[in-house]
Amino acid sequence: ADPNISQGVGLRVFDLAPTRSPDKQWVAFASNRDGNWEIYIGSADGTYQQRVTYNTVAIDTDPMWSPTGDFIVYESARDGNWELYMVNVLSGEEIRLTDNPANDVNPFWSPDGTKLLFQSDRDGFWQIYEFNVGTLETTLLSDGSGDDHDPQYSNDGTQILFRSYRD
Fold first, then answer.
1. Cβ-contact 127, 100 below 8 angstroms
2. How many angstroms separate the CA atoms of 37 and 62, rounded?
3. pLDDT tens for residues 37-76?
4. For FRET with 109, which of 78, 130, 139, 158 sits at 20 to 30 Å CA-CA?
5. Model pTM?
6. Helices (DSSP H) in the chain: which residue ranges?
7. Within 10 A of 1 (CB to CB), how many other CB atoms are there?
8. Is the pLDDT of residue 2 over 70?
């Protein structure tokens, strides 16, 4: 099988940040193949690729497939700063999740798909926040004692792992 499952080819064409669907049949990734960074999906065997986002004014990147397989969350700079968006894989409907003058990046789904972790510099430091997909509420989780990055839930969702510059 061709190891290039995203099938990106050409001078200065890059495919980045792959994430696998829960059924392992699809991969979402960011690519600049159409002249702007957009989100794409492709079959795991490399036989099919499709563009998912159609934002021609800014970067869409860092996709992450939901545990249910219905949604892909990603970050976009289309509003002048980084915000989190979610796209329904079946309908193509995009939903803006965060709306803050600061930057919201590095989304990570909870194991049950009801919440997202992300990092934001809205309080001066990079801090970890949790976003409830059902209520659209955001909760600060970090304590503000240093810059915190790259949050992830444990496999059972009871703990959060992140990188910190506290010391």
1. no
2. 10
3. 999 999 998 889 999 999 888 999 999 999 999 999 999 9
4. 78
5. 0.92
6. none
7. 8
8. no
